[in-house]
Amino acid sequence: MKKIITALVILITTASFAQNKNARASMEVDGVCLMCKTRIEKASLNTKGVKSAVWNVKTHELKLIYDERKTDLKTIQTSILAVGHDTKDMKATDEAYNTVHPCCRYRDNDIVDDHKGE
Fold it and tell me: What pTM did the predictor assign?
């Protein structure tokens, strides 16, 4: 009887961990407009395992839902850096940054000021 109870507890524990595959996280990503939003979300969603990516233009917060078995935050962050957007922890290369549309140059204070009314 004791073996059956132990096996049942292990089975239930394993089943509960298997169901919790989707992680939620958020990170700060620099950008200034809706074109940035599209680029950031697309880069995130093109990362294998990312199920949802929503970036807020005003707060610069990227909210993610992803499968921890297929990806991690560092991999998602690398995808975002590759399309030219800085995160709180890392900066995109100048080469990647220079590929963003001229109106999306979030490192330029004049362009950031132009977008403040949006």
Answer: 0.80
Average pLDDT over residues 59-64: 98
- Residues 6 or more apart whose CB falls under 8 angstroms from that of 75 comprise 47
Q: How far apart are CA 13 and CA 51, in angstroms?
A: 25
Q: Which two tokens stand for residue 22?
A: 């989707």
CA 14, 20, 25: angle at the middle one, nearest 5?
145
pLDDT the model gives residue 1: 59
Burial class, 115, CB count within 10 angstroms (exposed 0-12 / middle 13-18 / buried 19+): middle
- Give the separation between CA 73 and CA 91, rounded to whole angstroms: 15
Q: Phi-psi bin for 53: left (phi > 0), alpha (psi -120 to 50), beta?
A: beta
Strand order across the 50-55 sheet:
22-28, 61-67, 50-55
CA count, 13 A, side-chain hemisphere, 67? 10
Residue 37 one-letter amino acid: K
β-pair type (50-55, 22-28): unpaired
